[in-house]
Every structure is written in C-alpha cells, then in structure tokens.
Write a structure and sequence with these properties.
This protein is mainly beta. It is 10% helix and 33% strand. It contains 1 helix and 8 strands. The strands form 2 sheets. A 5-stranded mixed beta sheet has the order 2-8-7-4-5, with no helix packed on it.
Length: 161
C-alpha cells in the first residue's frame, strides 16, 4: 500500500512540475507617433540646378599627386603642384568587373571642363593611374574620378608658380 501511495505522489508531483506556464508578458512600450508635415513645392517655371552625387563603394582609396611609385601609383598625395609637374590621379579599385571603364575629368575653378583621360580596359585590375595630358596653368582645379559612369572620387588641387 505504501508503494502505491508513493507512486501516486510521484505521479502527482511529476504532473505539477510539468505544468505549462505562460511566459511573463513583456513591459509594453509606449507607442511613438511621429507626425510629419507635407508641403507641396511648386517648381513650375523655375530653374532647378542641383547636383546629386551617388558614390558607390567601389574604391578603397583615391589620391592625386605629381610623383609615381615603382608600382605606377601616386606615391605622395599632394594638393599643390607646379605648372611644369605632371599631375596624376590614382584610384584603388574594390570592384573591377570585365569591361570596366575608368575616367578622369579636370574642371577649372569655374567648373568648366578642361579635358578628360580614359582607360577602357580596367576590368580585373586593383588600381589604375590616369595622367592629365597637358600642363595646367596656375589656378584651382577639381579632379573627378569616374568608375563606369559614376562619379566616385573628387580631389581639389591648386597649381602655383
């Protein structure tokens, strides 16, 4: 008889121990209500001149300078040059799919294009250097590096006497 009672207590204890309990409810967070206002802009008859630049992460580095290292890349970045020095722009590519074209565009201080340099066979290379093909007159210039058709690098340089 004692064995049966012990067995019944063991079964009852097992049933109580295995009972399902709901997890405690999380503290409720207050609802955040963000109110935004919308105002329609009427641009009819107005001239809009705004530049949007998308910069995909396809470069790891971009440098302008006048001296190249043994690897053919800009060794010492510089923002000030002399008129008789050659000017280079090196771009270290994170992505270089087959058929990739890279380009360099040179703009003067008034944002007028001075010239371009292109390389059509940059697919598969890790870095590329483009050279400005003429001597620059004293003044401020902007060098723009393009990966495919995307502007990915801008360097401001100044040519001084």
């Amino acid at each position: 008889m004692i064995q049966r009672i012990t067995l019944l207590y063991a079964i009852a204890l097992a049933c109580v121990a295995c009972r399902y309990e709901r997890p405690a409810a999380e503290a409720s967070r207050p609802r955040l209500i963000q109110r935004t206002t919308w105002q329609r802009t009427d641009l009819a008859g107005k001239r809009v001149q705004q530049k949007f630049v998308l910069q995909p992460k396809v470069l790891t580095r971009c440098e302008a300078g006048t001296r190249l290292g043994e690897d053919g890349l800009v060794a010492e970045p510089a923002s000030t040059m002399r008129p008789d020095e050659p000017v280079y722009l090196s771009m270290w590519l994170a992505q270089a799919p087959e058929g990739l074209q890279v380009a360099l565009r040179v703009l003067d201080g008034d944002e007028n294009e001075i010239g371009t340099a292109r390389r059509d066979d940059a697919g598969g290379v890790r870095a590329v250097t483009l050279q400005i093909g003429e001597e620059l007159k004293p003044g401020k210039y902007k060098l723009e590096g393009f990966w495919g058709g995307n502007l990915v690098c801008e360097k401001n340089v100044e040519v001084t006497r």
